Amino acid sequence: MRLVHEHSVDEDRTGGFSRQEQDTGTRSEFDYDLDVDKFKLLAARLNNASKQLSKIHPEMIKKQTRQNSSQNYTSKRLGRYQETYQSEIREAEDASMAITNLIHRDAPETGKLQRDSGDRSWEVTMWREKHKKAEEDRDTIMTLYVSLKDQVERWQHHQDELKGENAKLRKELSEREKDIKDLQIENANLLRNYKQEKAEKDYALTRLKERLSELERERENTRLLRNNRQEKAEKDDVLTRISVVASSKIRDNNPNIADLADVNRPTKIAEKMSELYDNEWTDAFDNLEKSHPDIDVVQILVNILKNINEQCIEMAWQDYFRHVQSAIELPAKILQELKPSTHPVNEIRLTKEFQQQIKEFRKLRAPTTLPIIQTALVPKDFDSDELRAYYNRCVEVCWLAAVQDPPMFMNFNPGVNFDTTLFKDYTARGPFVEFLVWPALNLHKDGPLLSKGVAQGTRQSRGVQVYTRRDSVGGRRAADRPATVAVKSSKIRDNNPNIADLSDVNRPTKIAEKMSELYDNEWTDAFDSLEKSNPGLDVVKTLLDILKTINSKCQEMSRWQVFIQQVQSAIELPAKVLKKTKPDVWSNNVYLPEDLQQMIKHLRKLKAPFVLHIIQSELLPKDVDSDELRAYYNRCVEVCWLAAVQDPPLFMNFNAGEKFDTTLFKDYTAKGPYVEFLVWPALHLHDKGPLLSKGVAQGE
């Protein structure tokens, strides 16, 4: 490249060839050869530069790739390669320019040779050949030049791309460095938090270790305390056993000393007996009086109690210790095969202390053995749940009373004169006893009284007469009860449907039973009748609509506000005036006292069955041509009216919803999670109240 530069300086200084060289052909030929040699030299230098660039290029690519893979890497050698690459490119460009200038300079020399060809023909031929050769060399050099120039341009373009990638990588490197700084900051924060948490956990661990040590000490103290308590319990147990033995000796056949820890001690049994008379006796009385109106119910019930009591006393004490001793002395197989007449035991050898412990154990186990005693004493052929409950409760009370030591005494002999210290009045007072209703309970025979009995008084001494049903009350006819009791009972039940009057034959549970019977009987008959007489009719919907319409009318007719205003108006106004007065001018305010209102509600419920025929004649259509359908109408009116006069009124749920609720409805003819149609409504104690009877719906 330095030769090219020197040639350019000589050319500038002499303006091409010197004048002397133009005059002499030999000098001109020499100079031409020299120029050709320069061309070759320059071409060789250019070719060497190209080869050098080809060697440097892969190294640059490798370094660039390395730089791409590691953004933090910077190489000084790569910088030197880039500088060498730029220098070689500049030298190649200078050599190309020099070749171009030399080629352009050949044209004047060729013209000069042609002018001198007339004088030197042999030189012309020589120059022509040299010129031709120079042109060929020029073409070759130009081709090489163009190729090298293209290569230089490609390398230049590649260098620009590398510069762009380098800038992009530098930008990414900057972003990565920023990310690294952020991560370093975050790492520092995490490390700080870790150290802080570690310190806290170390502190907590230290505290836990301290707490563990405390717990170990507490456990040791607890163990010592438990051992101490165990030793104390063992001592107390020994003392208790001693005390039990002493207590048993004291209580042996001494009922005046009660064990307050015994839940079935005599005073508690007396409470059970009073509850038996107040509850199960009353229910059984009502049931028997309805189902057997011609029998003496009081005498039957007291005889049941008397027979059970006698059997319990006999089972509890007849040959009791002989039986226990036999069970102790003989194996079970032999004891089962022996007949009572061949029983070998003749003398009771059990000690008094042993007998007392046996009696105490029997009292303790008496509630557990009650089902067995009840199975043995209660008859199987009952047609009444109330009577079965009365039997079972009589067995319970009599058995618990019979196993006391000594057994408690039920006084079934009230005598002729009415002893008010032993008996209460039943429905009539008098100085003499007409008949016994309920026995008095004593701690033992001739012992202190625990609960009074009940007897019917009379003013004439007729001995103990047979109970007559015409004097029946509290079994009892509600109309003959004291008014104060009825008023108090009404106050308790006022708008409180959860408290039921068990003497009310039309209480909510009974109405629910009537509604179930209506669906099972009258609904079925009406369904069959309509299905035969009207084949295309939707019978289920028709019967449901009848019930729904009647229920809506009954609820409207019995609406409390309208009803009580009507009653108040009837009280306030004379009948003659009231007939001429329209309901819309009655007083909108209710001034009746609460007690009186409640008595009115109760009277309406009581009289509801007696006005049913009037309600039925009002709601029953005149054009019903089927006895089954007429019976269905009448029974629907009965159930709906009795439900409507309750306080609050019973609620019939005619909305089954979309999803089948098995807690409210039963399946009709198909099951499914969804409701296709409603068949029969559910009955509730009141709106959103407890369920009394399920409805019926078709599932799908």
Describe the structure.
It is found in: Cytoplasm; Mitochondrion matrix; Mitochondrion outer membrane. GO terms for molecular function: lipid binding. It comes from Dreissena polymorpha (Zebra mussel). This is Mitochondria-eating protein. InterPro entries: MIEAP (IPR026169), MIEAP_C (IPR031981). It is a single chain. By secondary structure, the protein is mainly alpha-helical. The chain is built from 20 helices and 12 strands. Strands 1-4-5 form a 3-stranded antiparallel beta sheet, with helices on one face. Strands 2-6-3 form a 3-stranded mixed beta sheet. Strands 7-10-11 form a 3-stranded antiparallel beta sheet, covered by helices on one side. Strand 4 (440-442) and strand 5 form a beta hairpin. Helix 3 (25-69) runs antiparallel to helix 4 (76-115), helix 4 (76-115) packs antiparallel against helix 5 (121-251) and helix 8 packs parallel to helix 12 (385-402). The longest helix is centred in the first third of the chain and has 131 residues, at 121-251.
